[in-house]
Amino acid sequence: MAVGVSVQHGLFSRKTSLIYSIPRKIALSGVCIQRAAEIQSVRASTNTAGENQHSEKYCLNLVRSRDYEGFLSCLLLPEEARRSSLALRAFNVELAQVKDSVSQKTIGLMRMQFWKTAIEEIYRDDPPNQPVSTELWKAVKTHGLTKRWLMRIVTEREKDLDDRAYRNLQELEKYSENTQSSLLYLLLECLGVKNVHADHAASHIGKAQGIATCLRATPYNSSRRKVYLPMDICMLHGASQEDFIRGSREKNVRDVVFDIASQAHVHLEHARSFSHNVPAAATPAFLPTVVLEDYLQRVRKADFDVFHKSLLSRNPLLPFQLYLRSWKKTY
């Protein structure tokens, strides 16, 4: 009997041990699952952080390489607006380089359609997996950027794929308003500025920028046998497209440059007439006026010879001039 009890006791003991071991296994399994979930969560957050850094770095490098002056201006903006402004400038660069990077208009139209769709998706909180789109979505979420300005930039760039000269100066001004001025309106929103005088100043600065950019690009475009300068002014002075393609420095060519540069200067002065009513918070968005003023002064010193070698090099004092203007809070 003693043996039987012992066996039963031993059997009971083994069963009891088995019963108690089950909850331990369940508990251990639960801990493993929890830790696996924690590891997965950490990895996901790490991946997200990595993607964020990648998209931000992509925009920064793109702007630094393709819009160096805009890059310098962004660095002098308040920290809360800096990343968003880089996203906007990267967006502008992406659109601007479509015209020169495609061999057929159809391909350019497809790329413009991509950006139209991307903007729609950004405002639905579903941006495409593309670095500039990702950063632009964050800018829209952070500052509540106006969709109309973004769409207007794309639409105007799309029209510009026709690859022809502007019929007149007013057409160039309209293009500049819809692209450069729209970008400035968005930068003002990044700075939290809502002021009618700042908007008026931005409109004229954008027009001046667009006109000056058309002049600055003339040597490059002429080397590719393309001329986009307003035809009415060229006809007024008897300057043909072939004159610019040949890099002519005759008086009639310089007269064309003088008239166009003068109109840019008029817009710049008009923008400055609002300066007493423009809030100080808006002035960082207008730092590109430093670049604009620098070019207009240099082209005047070159006697409006748009092909002069002094206009082809970068101003080494520009970073200092931008910093000084940002410190003064003027434009």
TrEMBL record:
<dbReference type="Pfam" id="PF00494">
    <property type="entry name" value="SQS_PSY"/>
</dbReference>
<keyword id="KW-0809">Transit peptide</keyword>
<keyword id="KW-0999">Mitochondrion inner membrane</keyword>
<dbReference type="InterPro" id="IPR002060">
    <property type="entry name" value="Squ/phyt_synthse"/>
</dbReference>
<dbReference type="InterPro" id="IPR008949">
    <property type="entry name" value="Isoprenoid_synthase_dom_sf"/>
</dbReference>
<dbReference type="GO" id="GO:0032981">
    <property type="term" value="P:mitochondrial respiratory chain complex I assembly"/>
</dbReference>
<comment type="similarity">
    <text>Belongs to the NDUFAF6 family.</text>
</comment>
<dbReference type="GO" id="GO:0005743">
    <property type="term" value="C:mitochondrial inner membrane"/>
</dbReference>
<comment type="function">
    <text>Involved in the assembly of mitochondrial NADH:ubiquinone oxidoreductase complex (complex I) at early stages. May play a role in the biogenesis of complex I subunit MT-ND1.</text>
</comment>
<keyword id="KW-0472">Membrane</keyword>
<protein>
    <recommendedName>
        <fullName>NADH dehydrogenase (ubiquinone) complex I, assembly factor 6</fullName>
    </recommendedName>
</protein>
<keyword id="KW-0496">Mitochondrion</keyword>
